[in-house]
Amino acid sequence: MNASHDYQRVYVWEQPVRWFHWINAVCVIALGATGYLIAHPPGLLNGGEAGDSYWFGTIRFVHFATAYVFMFNFLFRLYWASVGNKYTHWRNFFPISKPQLRQVAAVLKVDILQSSDKAVHTLGHNSVAYFTYMGTGLLTVFMVLSGFALYAPMSDSWFPQLFTWMVPLFGSEQNLRLFHYGALWLFIIFTLIHIYLVFYHDYVEGHGVLSSMVGGWKFMEKDAIKAEEASGISGFPRRKRRPAPAAAPGAKPDPVP
Ligand code: HEM
């Protein structure tokens, strides 16, 4: 139990990020379920009218329609990574600074190696999570490119035709299909570990990680917030502008643009 109860409430996940998250989660589950059925179609027979048993067509329709939502939702998150608050900024997702890499080691010691019980306090995602989401982002790009390339021969629309260059890159449509299917399993593994970890962190740290993707708020001890903000990791700070050089004595000021 924490000795100090001097907690502060911090608004971390803005509404657009929360909408992105839940739309993305629903899309991944819908695409995963329908994609699996398309790869392994069950031989369901029914004695009714052939036209009434169009269920597999519906499965395929849901898969293709959801793919559009998945893609536009992801493009929106890319946009938000440049206009959103500091916790959602794209720079967090790149493992470039020493403090970030040190935090990766610290989180792995707690979460994976279990050789330390020193919880890592962050307001945004921790660095391991940021880098993992970078991975799922790349996986999303691959799924969209390969998915639309596979869809192109079945569609009259111009949009899927933009992706046909993916097929020769992988040698054949069948190879591309195998990679598209393989990536589904990476999403399944990610989702299982992701759900386990958000529950685990919520329980162990008590910062409201789980509810933060619903309401946007996290709660943390004021001291921990100060220490974390000083480390400059969570919500990787935007680059500070260099101060303008002092004007020479007697020089005319620059005209205001
Ligand atoms: C019941 C299911 C889920 C729950 C409870 C859940 C919960 C959460 C929570 C609490 C966070 C924020 C963690 C933090 O503050 O560090 C988060 C982030 C995230 N989750 Fe989930 N999640 C679920 C399903 C999924 C699924 C299915 C996916 C996609 C495969 C997903 C992808 C992500 C991504 C990409 C982020 C980062 C969001 C961003 O920064 O834009 N989640 N999730």
Question: What are the main properties of this structure?
Answer:
single chain, 257 residues, mainly alpha, Fumarate Reductase Cytochrome B subunit, 2 strands, elongated, binds protoporphyrin IX containing FE
Structure explained in plain terms:
With 257 residues, the protein is mainly α. The chain has a single domain (7-41, 55-231), classed as Transmembrane di-heme cytochromes, Chain C (Fumarate Reductase Cytochrome B subunit). It has helices at 15-39, 55-83, 98-111, 127-151, 158-161, 166-169, 173-205, 209-215, 222-231, and strands at 7-11, 217-221. Strands 1-2 form a two-stranded antiparallel sheet. The longest helix is centred in the last third of the chain and has 33 residues, at 173-205. Residues 253-257 have low confidence and may be disordered. Protoporphyrin IX containing FE (HEM) binds next to helix 1, helix 4, helix 7 and helix 8.
